[in-house]
Amino acid sequence: MSFALTHGLKIAFDRDTSARQKFVCELRAYILNEMAATMRSSYEDEVLPAFERKHGRKPTTEDEVHDAMRPNTCFKFYSSIRYNAQEMVWRSVIPSVERSMANIEREIRKLSGKSGGSLQLDPSVQVPENVAGLEVHLMPGGYAPSNSPLAGAIYDNGLTVFSAGFMGRELDDIGLSMSNYVKQRFPEFHPRRILDCGTTVGHNAAAWARTFPDAQIHAIDVSAAMLTYAHGRAESCGLPVHFKQMDATALAYPDESFDIVFSSMFLHELSLDDIRAFFAEAKRVLRPGGLLLCMELPPNRELEPYERFYLDWDSYYNCEPFYRTFRDQDPEDLLVAGGFQRENYFQFVIPQFSYISESAFATAVQKSGLVDKDTGRLSTDIQWFGFGMWKQR
Amino acid sequence: MSKVADTGKYRQSFFESESIDQIVTMILELATEVWTVRERLYVLEHAADKLGIPLRKALEEYQYSEAEAAELTAMRQRMLKELLRTVGRKSKGLR
User: Fold this and answer.
1) Where are the beta strands (DSSP E) in A265-304?
2) Is the pLDDT of residue A374 over 70?
3) Could you tell me the CA-to-CA distances from A85 to A59, A77, A80, A293, B25 in Å, in that order?
4) Domains of chain A, each with CATH number or no CATH
5) Strands A241-245 and A216-221
6) Is A243 helix (H, G, I), strand (E, B) or coil?
């Protein structure tokens, strides 16, 4: 699977750096497939029987599994190597990104406005502590260290190494899968204005623009660094996206001004209070008959204790403190508590749009799938989980 | 050197002794460097073959100039800095 970016802000990495990145990719793939399978076997063959002997039952929670696994040698090596690999992802791109920044900034200035998109930064936006105070995903410097597009470039290139091609040619497979799901599952629905929240480098906003070329695409984030880079990235692809610096919990858009409010891998980085505030805002800015659509990690209630423990790794060791809190929630209940109506909820699991035939995707869309061990995980059989809520007409 | 690559104050530790975590880092960095060189050599030898250059013989017989030797020393030092970068950094234990 190829993982080189092709958009106008791409960096030409030298041979040694490319070799290093490919090695890190292979290392991560080995950890997430082979080492994960070995750890699972070790759990079933040694840890689980020992737990059952001690307690007379199986573990019922992810915490019990975590506690039982902590002294396990497979868990220690899996975790230590995975943690290192996460650091190595960023380290494999940062020096080249730093050297390329003058070019990238020049390119962004040159491209700005060429494709009809826009960038609106708002210095009054307070970057919340969960973004400003953390190095989420262990990304050095965090997501909003300054207004320089450096953090955007590190994220874009790092995520490309991290995902090893599983997230699409331009990291846009989630956006492509979700937007094409909407297009094929609800053919009578014709969104005119679409909002992508927590857009980072705009990779998924770009996908919505490709799938619905007649719609106006807006994308927000609290990070000026991400948005500045995202603007140049989208313009270089000929996609007119309107980026604005804004907090999703306090949207500066009028009531009933969007047909779709979308987020991808966003909610699990928010506190529960912020998720509630975002849902309330989404409901406010949606037109009657509009759709709130979220691509996310599957909720814990859909998973066995071991799978929950496995997904919790990021919460504890990848600097994503709300990752688990989010998965402990029932998204349907959260939305209902936010004023949406239960009968308008739906959820689905779909394969990757980029890597299967059009007809296979169309068939999968009608089935809407079931959550399994590969849902939301970067493995060879990955599937995406999403849920949606229509706003009552 | 990078301005942002080492901004984190703490690293996570998974083993009883954080020294083991540091050794894991060293081994992984070393493995990455070994791979990078291996891939470069592979390309060199194959590219030379295609150009009709007897590279393997030339590699064995090559003598460094002073400037080249100094350059290689600097490269070795950079590699060691990467390899040993976690030694002495603070860690936090398991939850």
Assistant:
1) 286-296
2) no
3) 29, 12, 9, 32, 9
4) 1-393 (3.40.50.150)
5) parallel
6) strand
How much is the ipTM here?
0.77
Average pLDDT, chain B: 85
**CA–CA dist B53, B43 (Å, integer):** 13
**Closest in B3, B21, B35 to A80, CB measured:** B21
pLDDT tens digits along A4-33: 899 999 999 999 999 999 999 999 988 988
* Cα distance between residue A345 and residue A64, in whole Å: 32
Token output for A97: 């990104």
Average pLDDT value for residue range A347-362: 91
Q: Which helix (H) or strand (E) holds A221?
A: strand A216-221
Chain B closest CA to A141's CA: distance in Å? Answer: 6
Which of A170-174, A358-362, B17-21 has maximum average pLDDT?
A: A170-174
Closest Cα in chain A to B27: A81
Rounded Cα distance between A259 and A194, Å, is 6
- Residue A285 and residue A261 in contact, taking contact as beta carbons nearer than 8 Å: yes
Three-state DSSP state, A220? strand
Spatial CB neighbours of A314, under 8 Å, sequence gap ≥ 6: A320, A323
Q: Which two tokens stand for residue A202?
A: 């705009």
What is the mean pLDDT of the segment spanning A25-53? Answer: 94
The residue behind tokens 């059952």 is: A52
Confidence (pLDDT) at A248 = 97
- Looking at residue B1, its pLDDT comes to 53
From chain B residues 22-81, the ones with a CB under 8 A of any chain A CB are: 24-25, 28-29, 31-32, 35-36, 39-40, 43
